[in-house]
Known about the structure:
Helix content is 31%, strand content 25%. The protein has helices at 61-68, 86-91, 110-119, 133-139, 155-167, 185-202, 213-219, 253-267; strands at residues 17-30, 33-46, 50-54, 76-81, 84-85, 95-98, 173-177, 205-209, 222-227, 232-238. The protein has a six-stranded mixed β-sheet, sandwiched between helices. The relative contact order is 0.19.
Amino acid sequence: MSATQAVEPLQGATAEVAVSVRDLTVRFAGDAGDVTALQNITVDIPAGGLVTMLGPSGCGKSTLLRAIADLVEVSGGEISVLGKSTGEARRNRDFAFVFQDATLLPWRSAIDNVRLPLEVGGKSAVIKAADRPEDLLELVGLAGRAQALPHELSGGMRQRVAIARALICRPRVLLMDEPFGALDEITRDKLNEELLRIWQETGTTIIFVTHSVPEAAFLGQQVLVLASHPGRVRELVTVDLPQPRKLSVRDTVDFMRVAAHLRSLLESC
């Protein structure tokens, strides 16, 4: 896989926007009446950036991610992905989605699970720059496990396969909904570092949902903090820590200051 140059830190308001959300409202019908999950959300996600999303349970983090992915009907406002409607971006496979569960097909090997998007939807014929599945497994650190079935892989390895599968069509935006939430702390820390490496090498725009303050601060160039009832933007926090980051940055005063600010925001949500 040919790696791009390392992604630079945010350069301010003039940076190209990958995802634009304007006055977004999402309501769901319930037995007791409509429930407003998101209200007047406005945010820009810079191209090539890694933005984490943090907030209490029920604040609409996953709903916002699914609205961007054209999986949730919006009640008001607008979303554009790379200047297109969410439906057009979905049909063009401009984005890919990684869920908390790897959702691998149990009868297919790791490499065949990575190949799956090329076999669905008829896009394989028009993918000109897609990387080989073998290269993507190497990118995520699974070069020697191509023929392994999902039950032969650890939870962390299965998530690596899911990430490789998401990257097979070269999406420009990667949406990740708590992909490491069910993993043990050691594996989670390792995958945090791996994700930063993959982001640096590919230049993909990443929006990453998490419940973990340390994970949000470690991964994100920015952290979008949502408040609840209804879900709304509490603050968009810039994480001014050097890149590339290693886990040791969590022991620094600057990191602790960012984490403390995020916790104070959550306490007021």
